[in-house]
Amino acid sequence: MATIKLYNSLTKQIEEFKPLQDGQVSMYTCGPTVYNAPHIGNYRSYIFADILRRTLECSGYDVKQVINLTDVDDKTIKKSIELGIPLSELTLKYEQEFYIGREHLNLLPAYKYPRATESIPTMVEIIKTLLKKDFAYKAEDGSIYFRVANDKEYGQLVNIDKDKLKENASGRMNNADEYDAESPQDFALWKAWDENDGIVFWETDLGKGRPGWHIECSAMAKESFGLTLDIHTGGVDNAFPHHENEIAQSECANDKTFARYFTHCEHLMVDGRKMAKRDGSFIMLTDLQEHGVSPLAYKYFLYGTHYRIQANMTWDGLYSAQTALMRMYEKFINIIGTNPGTANYGYVDKIIASLQNDLNTAEALATFIALFDDVEIHSVDKLCTVLVIDNILGLGFNEYYKIDKTLPIAIQTLADERINARNIKDYARSDELREDLNSHGYVVIDTKDVSIIALNPLK
């Protein structure tokens, strides 16, 4: 297998990736909490995980990617009660929106999408093991907490000094699924039922209640891959407390390494600031589309920044990215019309090599752009090369190539009228017809010999 170098958050260094089994990669990606649609910052982590998976696959690995769905926690329960609908109805709605968003971004489908509510028995068994080994304890209200002080390895991911962790004054630990990184404490594994949970609970050996947030991923990862997985991905905000707690409860219960590589992408900034609920600054994929920005243009924009560096999004930056991607599509449309020839693997291998070097997407993108301007490559070979590279970068060229290019009668009529206007040098009318075609979602490309009318791939 080809050498792939990745930054491992566990060791704080770039390492050569070596899976547990030759040619096989188990990859667990922290998925959405389905109480709302993901915002574009969330999608940065899924785009990063997707290009990592594509890099592994084009390097010869068989990748099994699992993306979990958190369908029970404080947020999902609270919102379902506020809306007066069953928890499953709420979560299914946003689960479907997540899938639609992934399709718009041309992200590969996961091997499976386990739901937390389907793994309750495994969670119970892990918690029972932790209780037996004195890594967990039951509080007065029946909730069960992980005892951080007894885990000698706690803090290995984010270098937390567990000696500085403080209990709150009453000796009771934090009962929320999430808490401030500035005041880390023992965390809930099982939350005893109270009136805030409404009708959401399970009757188990642990008592009447429901799981805490962190134990859910440990259970779903175990069911998917066994005791040890190769790569665990997520946003940098997942590192603590979530991933740190996953490691703690999994390794203390199983006496095995939980994940051999942790990879995290950095935050997305908007105009230099983090998106925050308190000021209503979350931007959704639908917001991009309402501003005339394609989700694929957002993906192209993110490729310009290394995944371990904060990306600063501005609307001007997104529009510039869309313009650059559209120019590539226009050149692509110009070479469609013949069967693909032979791929130029000088370009393909150069792009793969960039990605194998800790996912250098900016360098890979620069090589892809250069391909379109290389006049030494015959158009049929360039067409094939673009399609091969797009299987790696996932920018939608393959999907567009498969679309039926036959123009509807009304569009063909406008196109014919525009050709007549150009022939009689009525350029004002020609420009009006170009705008009309654009408004219907078609791009017009005028070459020396012909005018090409095609669907706008970014509409």
> How much is the average pLDDT?
92
Helix count?
Answer: 15
Helix fraction bin = 40-55%
What count of domains describes the coordinates? 3
Placed side by side, the strands forming the largest sheet appear as: 5-6-7-9-8
What is the CATH domain class of the largest domain?
Answer: Alpha Beta
Strand composition percent:
15-25%
Question: Mind telling me which CATH architecture of the largest domain this is?
Answer: 3-Layer(aba) Sandwich
- The separation of the N and C termini measures 39 Å
In CATH, the homologous superfamily of the largest domain goes by the name HUPs
Tell me, briefly, the overall form: elongated
How is the CATH topology of the largest domain named? Answer: Rossmann fold
